[in-house]
Amino acid sequence: MKNILLIGLFVATVLCSPFVVSPYYATLVITMFGYSIALMGLNLLFGYGGLLSLGHAMFMAIGAYTVGVLGSKMGINSFEVHLLAAASVSGLIAAVLGALCARYTTIYFSMLTLAFGMIFHSFLFKFYNLTGGETGISVARPSLFGHAFSEISKTRFLTGPFYWYSLVLFLVLFALMALIVKSPFGQALRAARDNPQKTEFLGVPVLRVRYVAFVVSAVYCAIGGAILAVSIGAADPELAFWTQSGNIVFILVLGGLGQLFGPLVGSATFALLQDFLMANTQYWRFAFGALLAIIIVVAPRGVVGLLARGFGGRR
Amino acid sequence: MTIAKKIARRDVLKGMGGTIATMAGAVAMPAIAQNAPVKIGILASRAGTAAYIGENGLRAAEWTASRINATGGIGGRKVELVVEEETNARETLERARRLVLQEKVDCIQGVYSTGVSLPMAPTLEDMQALTIFWDGTTQDGVKETMPSPRYVFKSTDNECEAVMASLLVAKHLKGKFKRIAAVSPDYTYGRNVWTAFKALNKKFGIEAEVVAEQWSSFTQLDFTSNVAALKAAKPDLIFCVLGNADLPIFMRAATSAGLTDTARFVLVQAGHQHGQLKKPFTPEGTLLCYNTMYFARPDPSTIQKEFVEYYMDRFKDYPHWECERAYFSMMTYKAGVEKALAAKGGRWPGTDEVASSMEGIEIESFGGPARMRKDHVAEEVFYGGFASHDNSYDVCTLANSYSFEASVLQKPSGADFWKWLETANFPV
Amino acid sequence: MEMLLRARDLTKRYGTFVALNNVSFDVTKGEVVAVVGPNGAGKTTLVNTLAGLHVPDAGDVLFEGRSVVTLPPAARARRGLARSFQLVSVYPSFTVSEMVAVGAFSRRGRTFNMLRPASWFEPERSEIASVVEAFGLSHRLDTLCSALSQGEKKLADIASAMTLRPRLILLDEPTSGIASSDKHRIMERLLAATESLGVESLVLVEHDMELIARYATRVIGLRAGEIVADLPPSQFFGDPDVIESIVGKVPGHAHG
Amino acid sequence: MAFANVLFAAIFSAAVLFLVTAGLQLVFGVQRIVNLTAGSVYALGAYFGASAFDWVVVRGGSPLLLLPVLAIAGLLAGQIGFVIERVLRLVYERDEAFQLLMTFAFVLMLQDFLRAIWGAQPRIMGDLPDVYGALGIGEFRFPVYNAVVILCSLSIGLLLWWFVEGTRLGHIVRATAENKAMSEAMGVDTKKVTTLIFVLGSVLGTVGGALVIPTTAASLEMPSALIVEAFAVVVIGGLGSMRGALFGAVIVGGMRAIALSYFPEMEIMAIYLVVVAVLFARPYGLFGKAVS
Fold it and tell me: What ranges do the domains of chain B cover?
């Protein structure tokens, strides 16, 4: 029962936010959608699959750069094409890297994904006539279902049509992830996390299950990255640096690892918290570091866990 | 607690209040009362490679604001700074949106890295936010990336330092070198600047063979291998575009290995690290480009003299040229507002009016006369010269400081950089 | 009698240590084969090799007439050759029905079905119910595995392999860690359940001689990786030389 | 003769890389924790060493005291290992990912900590490029201090090898690494051992940073940049093995020197390509043990 209440409450607040909240906070909601979608992918891999990747910011960067390259370099500006391209390019690269990484677990998996992330980061610098090098690439405003909305300003575009587009995209992907997590595949993935050997002997090809989770998480991250790129209007190599991968893991743990609402609550909490902290102290990174340490020790199930406990959920 | 922080904190609280007001959506913005402060949003980086540069810009902006307020403010209204941090493109754009939509600032000034300024410009233009970038704009390397902006004003062109370096080399070192080498971080600016240097050498009839090219990663901390490879190539002139902590590291390694005895160094971004180029590893005769402010200029303008004394006394450090950019931005805005104010007989001008009155405006900056071109590109005076050790500091200063008007070093608006290099007649 | 599992000249070495040395034996339908021997005799290595965890250095494993020695454990499990573990292994965060469901889905090749909640699959739900019922755990269907008693965990662990509809199951000390008074009860429950769920034969690694004598149809003695005896329990226990060859000197141990 | 310069430079950068990774390897070898703060701790050692030396010189100490002052400064700064381990201990029982994440939390905290105390400007020990002078024959010339760093790095390596292989405490440490439960059963206070090892790992980092600061500059990007280089060395050499750290450092140091001299264009990518190549050949690195 509590879950449905939580969902209803969230959807309501988000739906009416562009009317109530000042335009600035409305744009923050777009960033929240971008991160939530990306984090749903990461949550599948790390939360449900138990594999901590320190390179997944790479796939968000792939999403952002695909939109940038298609938009600015090839003149294609339909956002549907961008999303499709971002998802397939990211899926393709994940299909290759996944084959290498899925064999490893725990520490080696994290280190390997970090190494691949950094290879991609130096690739973005190196081939600058494609990627624009250190200045990155600009991301023009795409057309939604063929409609360019050029008559309205970018801020109104973001808080208007693009906002609804991102909300619907988020809800669709959220429903899809809710299914995946509850599906036989989701159970097999969780089983592989808890006891890989036993799961293998129950007829589940553990490596292949992890491989599929890796590819699905990369596709989600790319879509999240694409939405962020449109909101920012740019994609730069910093998106793929390893500390960014560390940050998105932090946001997920903040929200609630292995919880369906973890990504969403994490992104919202992070967006508001960062805004507040950045306005009040120049040492906001220290505050985030301390918060991450506290959350890991005190609330391993993150803010969602705290909320559940708050509403008398199981301890 | 610097002024900025106090200002930032008080504003945030009011900002919070502002949100609630807009949330209620009831209260229309009151007519701008004559005594309400002029709010200027500052975007300055505080961490990573640009932290030192952002810090300098912020200190200069604070000093300029307090100086303006001491002389009656802008059109009688006090100047108030709202400081936000420039980090990466996403976060900085969010901070800029917050300044415009929440804090309702009258003008945004700041930003150093091209990775942040170029993506932000279209959005700021779209939000009709009057913005003056300190740095990192105009061309992305060579091609125009912000054609005919209305509200965004750009800094001087990145390539001016490199063109100045080439002119100084052609003028003073022609015939003294035959084997050139390049050391630069692997990014578009570095590659363009190296190509421009070779092109200008050809233009001035300097025959020089390229013996080595090295493209380092941005955060490289160990240059012993680079120096060893360079020594093997035996260059007699090294064109160095390093600009972060890697520059002093490279110079130290070069001096220890004796490379500085056999080759002359041209430091295109010396201005970035001039406080780090200590005498023991920056030999006399090294070509240093200081960008738009050389703190030890022999006969400085009164304004620069006053600022440098304030800065060195207060922070015990040598001011970076970003201070001049911050001062220039603040004064250009002040001049623009006052010109529009006079034109409207004392009524406060709107953003459009201030923007158009700023086009073509001239002010006296640290480095001398400076102006904002009609196409929103700034023009200031650049300084460079050959290092000398006879001064009372522990860093180098210039034996004789040469200055160049930006108009000489900068391509006219709309021109193609490479064609301009060939056709322009430079004062050599 | 149709031959279900055949081990032929299985050899497994770890460096110089020979864990299995040319081990060959058949298991036909209906048999309950007990594998006995001192620690280090190679019992667990044998089970792991049959189940596919180790690839033997030589020899072959045939199941239902076809060689499976190259198949990974998951593939052998899906073909009906299941196993349980010496140490109880359950999924703490799963309920009993969720754990038992994993095998059910993998057998039907539904592991990679992502778009329908597991609880909507009707055929699997009834199958899980029947398996759990056979193991007497129906009242624990929706309890978290971590909340089960040690005995219940043991049964749930073996039950989770049952949804694979195995024809043969390799049990590695199924009653270890269980109080001796409960051993028989658990053993009976186990044999009744496997019987009712279509398991045709069992291979049992066990130390408890009483259990072997009572339930096994055949006893294989392993010593230093080699088979030293392959007799029905009555003959096996009747012959002191055989016992001595497996466990070494037996001080005055008379055994009826 | 020029080749001698390239060779010396390769050895020097290998020595520096070994100092960066030694602490990381030790902590992983014993506790199976990847300590992301290895870079931040190294930078702390560098900053602290520079300030300590300035403090000594201001009080009239002769610059020749450079090496001892830096070594002591490194030892002092390394005590931060106690603070980190004290918090890390709270998650020892948890899944490995959370221990890794906890060290990431400290990376964030240390980033602002360094900036708060030492400010944003890169810190360089300016006026003594050759306090111990330079040596060389003809073309081949090198600063003595660089040679000192190479010797220090080697001696630290030997000291570590002797400590782990030769001493009684070393046996206990290896036993704890091999099987924590069994060591506890034999009366080993594994809590103390893990604390000791973690602090020793941090001290290795800070001493390394302090020793190398005269040849480089301490800057705020040092922590995140060093982690990338350390991971390349560790992935090549094999996680957890000291020999792996040594060989990994030599390979990466050598690769960079060769790449710079003969095909500079590929310098940045060269190291990563070696990392991927090694992973194909030996998944757990040259000397890594396959993890069960």
Answer: 3-156+301-379, 160-291+380-423
Find the CB nearest D109 among A119, A123, A290: A290
What's phi and psi for D135, nearest 5 deg? -125, 170
**E strand spans, chain C:** 3-14, 17-28, 32-36, 58-63, 66-67, 81-83, 168-172, 201-205, 218-223, 226-231
Which amino acid, A39? L
> What CATH number labels D2-281?
1.10.3470
Interface contact flag, D268 A125, Cβ < 8 Å: yes
Residue given tokens 């064999």 in the structure block: A103
What does the domain layout of chain C look like in residue ranges? 3-247
Q: Which of residues 193-222 of A touch B (CB under 8 A)?
A: none
Burial degree of B148 (CB within 10 A; 0-12, 13-18, 19+): exposed
Q: Nearest chain A residue to B143 by CA: give it.
A: A132
Cβ proximity of A94 and A215 under 8 Å = yes
Which of D102, D231, D269 has its CB closest to that of A111? D231
Give the Cβ contact number of residue D239 at 10 Å.
25
Q: Measured between CB atoms, which of A123, A249, A290 is closest to D101? A: A249
* CB contact at 8 A, C103 and C166: no
- The type of residue at C138 is S
Give me the amino acid identity at C102. Answer: V
| Per-residue pLDDT reduced to its tens digit, A251-269 | 999 998 988 889 998 998 8
Partner-chain contact D269 A119, CB within 8 Å:
yes
Helix (H, G, I), strand (E, B) or coil at C73: helix
Distance between CA atoms of A37 and B250, rounded to whole angstroms? 44
Contact state of B127 with A155 under an 8 Å Cβ cutoff = yes
- What is the CATH number assigned to the segment(s) B160-291+380-423? 3.40.50.2300
User: pLDDT 10s per residue in chain A (315 long)?
Assistant: 566 677 667 767 776 777 777 778 888 888 899 999 999 999 999 999 999 999 999 999 999 999 999 988 888 889 999 999 999 999 999 999 998 888 777 778 888 898 889 889 888 887 877 887 777 888 888 999 888 888 888 888 888 899 999 999 999 999 999 999 999 999 999 999 999 999 999 989 999 999 999 999 999 999 999 999 998 888 888 889 999 999 999 999 999 898 888 999 899 889 888 888 988 888 899 999 999 999 999 888 888 888 777 665 444
Whether D167 shows a pLDDT value over 50: the answer reads: yes
Chain C touched by A191 (CB under 8 Å): yes
Mean of the per-residue pLDDT values of chain C: 85
- The β-bridge relationship of strands C201-205 and C168-172 is parallel
Contacting B residues, span 61-120, partner chain D, CB-CB under 8 Å: none
The string over A42-52, giving b where at least 16 C-beta atoms fall within 10 Å of a residue's C-beta and e elsewhere, is bbbbbbbbbbb
Q: How far is A270 from chain D (nearest CA, A)?
A: 15
Q: Is A52 left (phi over 0), alpha (psi -120 to 50) or beta?
A: beta
**Touching chains D and C? (3+ Cβ pairs < 8 A):** no
Which of these, D252, D242, D239, lies nearest to D282 by C-alpha position? Answer: D239
Nearest to C102 among A176, A180, A204 (CB): A204
Per CATH, B3-156+301-379 and B160-291+380-423 having the same topology is answered yes
According to CATH, the superfamily of the domain at C3-247 is: P-loop containing nucleotide triphosphate hydrolases (3.40.50.300)
Q: Summarize pLDDT for C201-241 with one digit per residue, the tens.
A: 999 888 888 888 888 889 888 888 888 888 888 888 777 77
Among left, alpha and beta (phi > 0; psi -120 to 50; other), residue B427 is beta
Choose which CATH entry (3.10.180.10, 3.30.70.1560, 3.40.50.2300, 2.40.50.140) describes domain B3-156+301-379: 3.40.50.2300
Q: How far is D268 from chain A (nearest CA, A)?
A: 7
